[in-house]
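Service request form, structural biology core

Requester: graduate student, group of Dr. S.
Request type: structure prediction, single chain
Budget code: on file
Notes: please return the result as C-alpha cells.

Sequence provided:
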Amino acid sequence: MRPTASRLIDTRVIFCGDNLDQLRKLPPACIDLVYIDPPFNSNRNYEVFWGETKEKRSFEDRHESTKAYIDYMRPRCLELHRVLKKTGSFYYHCDWHASHYVKVMLDQIFGENNFVNEVVWKRQSAHNDAKQGSKHLGRVHDSVFLYSGGRDYKFKHLYGAYDEEYIEKAYRHIESGTGRRYRLGDLTAPGGGAPSKGNPHYEFLGVTRYWRYSEENMKELHRQGRIIQTKPGTVPAYKRYLDEGKGVPLGTVWDDINPIHSGDSERLGYPTQKPLKLLERILEISSEENDVVLDAFCGCGTALVAAQKLKRQWIGIDISPTACRVMALRLKKDCGLKEDEKLQQLGRGFIVRDLPKSEVELRKYPPFEFENWAVVALGGTKNARQVGDMGIDGRIYPVTAMPGKRGATVGELDFMDEWYPIQVKQKDKVGRPDVDAFEAVMIREERKLGYFVGFEFTRDALYEIDRFQRKEGREIRALTVREILDEELHKS
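Core staff response, request fulfilled:
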C-alpha cells in the first residue's frame, strides 16, 4: 500500500467527534467508497452501546419520531455526497425502522438516476421478533441502499457457487478420461443466421448451417476437443465445462453471510456489529486497491478492518471515545497495525485523533460512556451487561490468562478464573462507602486484586483501602482520572 491515496487528506485515521464537523473539514470529491450503518434515532450525543438495556432505553427516548432521525441524517448525507467522487459508491445500511424514508431522502440528495440497487441482507435465521401474540411477520433482513457518485462509478460483478441441483441438471454430461462436467452449447448463428448479418455459411461435420464462428475457428475448436457430435448428421455442439464457469452472478438478496453469533471469534459485544464478510463483499464490488473508504459511523470498526485487509486506504469517524479506542485495539490485534504517527505517514500504522485529553471533558461524559472510557483505558474488558452487574464495571485479565470461547450468558471471555474487577465512579471524590461496597465485591468474588477509578479519593477512602489490604490481604489500586490521562500521554 502507498502511504496515502491523496495529498489532500490523511488516511488510516480514526477521528473522534461529531461526523458532521469532521466531514466539513474534508475537501470535495476525495472519497471512493462510503459505507455507513447509523444507529436509528441517533443524535450528536449518542454513546456506543454494548448490550446494556438501561442505555438502550435512554437511547430510544432521545428522538420521538422518524422525522427527527431523517432531520439528523440529512445534513450528514449531504456532506457525504459532497466528498464522494463521481466514480465512487455510497452504501447506506439500515433496517425496517426508517428504510423507506431514508430511500426518499437519498433520492433527493444523490438523484434518483444514481440509485443502483437495494441489497437485502438476511441477518436473522429465525423470526425471533415475531413472538406468539404479535401481529407482524418476522423481521429478518436489513436493507443496504447503493448509490453512485456518477455514471462512471466503479463496479465489479461477483459470482457464487452453482447450486448442486442446478449442476446435476444443467451439467449432466461427464467427459470420459478427465471426469469434467459439461453442458452443450449452441454453435449455430443467433436467430438462425442470415447473410446480411455476416454469419459464415459452410458445411461442418456433414452439416450445413450459418455458424457463430469462422470455419477455421471451428476446426481449431474441434481439434481441441471442444466440439462434440453425438452421432453423424446431428448438429455439432460446444462443450461448456463447469470448472470454466464463473458461477452464479451475485444478486440483491444476500442470504449466504451469517450474522454475528455469541460464539463467533470476531464478536465484540457491539449490538449492531456486522460480519467482516459483509463489508469485504461491499468493498470488493465497489472499490479497488488503494481506494479511500470512509465510514462515518464506524462503531466497532468492521469497515476499517475490511479496508485494511483488502489493501484500501480508510478513514473512520465516531462520536464515541470508547468506540474509537475499541476499534484501535481491533486494528492492532486483527491487522497487526501500530498506533504511531510516523508509521501512519509511511503507510504502516494508524492514528486516533481528537480523543478527550482533559478531566473537564471527561466530567461531561454520560455515565456509561465514562465507565467505558475508564475500563478501556486500563486495558480491561467492559461488562456485557450494566443492569445487575453486581458492582463490577469491567474486568482485567492478566497476560498469562489464555482466552477461550465467549460466555453464552454475559458475553465475558472465559478464562481459568483469572481476572481482576474494575469499579468506576464518576464523582468528584470517591468516599469510604464506595470503597466498602467494592470490598464486599472482592470478598464475594474471592479476588486478591481490584482497581477503583475516580477523579479523587477522600482521606477516609484511602485509609480504608490500606486497612483492607493489611487485614484481608486483598489489594485495591486506587487510580485517579489524572493518573490515567498522564499515563496515556506518556504512552503516546
